[in-house]
Design brief:
EC 3.6.5.4; elongated; 8 strands; about 300 residues; hydrolase; Signal recognition particle; binds guanosine-5'-diphosphate; alpha/beta
């Protein structure tokens, strides 16, 4: 079930509750059954769904709440809060600081939208007045540097890469030191994605991280992958210190489960979502507006 459908179904269940003449345990159970069913169909991890059910039931005390109006309100609020907490680990996301040379490293599987998101983020901070540079440390995929070069040129963002150097760690170090020397505020390092979670990919990420010492590592994940999200996010978290998450392709057939699993598996906050292929298709993420919008 895609995100819009998930929102519509939860909303439908909440609306059905407001039409119930009597709000009792039976009505609450029916609501939770519908909401939890919808979450499971959206690939949200079963343990998290179970937790949501328990938390809502804990907050709603049928005997203490006098009127049905009160009960409805408490139930609606607690469902809303629980949905928010699924996408909010309660951590203040890292932000580049003015007056400092901030280094950000991107990690993620090939095809996740990593290179596109690098340029989107660079462009976002450029619009905020920062001097931003992009480093292409992906020597694995033929054409990776050309892609970054093309995207960066279109956005008028300085870039660094090499057609001759084969060592991604060397490129990352050279690019970062070049931009540091030129007093850049934000240096974004794109790393190789490869198509699978191979041992070599994680070893390479660790080496690049050790060499450039990023202030923040952003994990990019395709929002349409559903059930696979949990294992993927866990695997990345084991190798690198994930600071924040960007979920891409939220304009397409994204299910809610992908984003929710990534947060649960890493304990890191989603900072942006990708909402299209163009440069400006990047939305700042915060849990409450996201859930409100999902519910329509
Ligand atoms: P990488 O291999 O992880 O670097 O992935 P790319 O940045 O090359 O992106 C893979 C494909 O996904 C490209 O066709 C992008 O245009 C597309 N893409 C990236 N982000 C988004 C997004 O937020 N929405 C949509 N619809 N497409 C995206």
């Amino acid at each position: 079930m895609v995100l819009n459908e998930l929102g519509a179904r939860i909303n439908g269940a909440l609306q059905a509750l407001s039409k119930e003449p009597v709000i009792d345990d039976k009505a609450l159970d029916a609501l939770l059954r519908e909401i939890c069913g919808a979450l499971l169909e959206s690939d949200v991890n079963v343990r998290l769904v179970q937790q949501l059910r328990v938390n809502v039931k804990k907050r709603v005390n049928m005997e203490e709440l006098a009127s049905s109006t009160n009960k409805r309100k408490v139930i609606q609020n607690s469902v809303f809060d629980e949905l928010c907490s699924l996408v909010d680990p309660g951590i203040e996301p890292w932000q580049p600081r003015k007056g400092k040379q901030n280094i950000v490293m991107f990690v993620g599987l090939q095809g996740s939208g990593k290179t596109t998101s690098c340029t989107k983020l660079a462009s976002y901070y450029k619009r905020k007045g920062m001097k931003v540079g992009l480093v292409c440390a992906d020597t694995f995929r033929a054409g990776a540097f050309d892609q970054l070069k093309q995207n960066a040129s279109r956005a008028h963002i300085p870039y660094y890469g090499s057609y001759t150097e084969a060592d991604p760690v060397q490129i990352a170090m050279d690019g970062v030191s070049q931009f540091k020397k030129d007093k850049f505020d934000l240096i974004i390092v794109d790393t190789s994605g490869r198509h699978k979670q191979e041992v070599e990919l994680f070893a390479e990420m660790e080496q690049i991280a050790a060499a450039v010492k990023p202030d923040n590592t952003i994990f990019v994940m395709d929002g349409t992958i559903g059930q696979a999200a949990d294992a993927q996010a866990r695997a990345f978290k084991q190798s690198v210190d994930i600071g924040s998450i960007i979920i891409t392709k939220m304009d397409g057939h994204a299910k809610g489960g992908g984003a929710i699993s990534a947060v649960a598996a890493t304990g890191s906050p989603i900072v942006f979502i990708g909402t299209g292929e163009h440069m400006h298709d990047l939305d700042k993420f915060s849990a409450r507006p996201f859930v409100s919008k999902m519910l329509g």
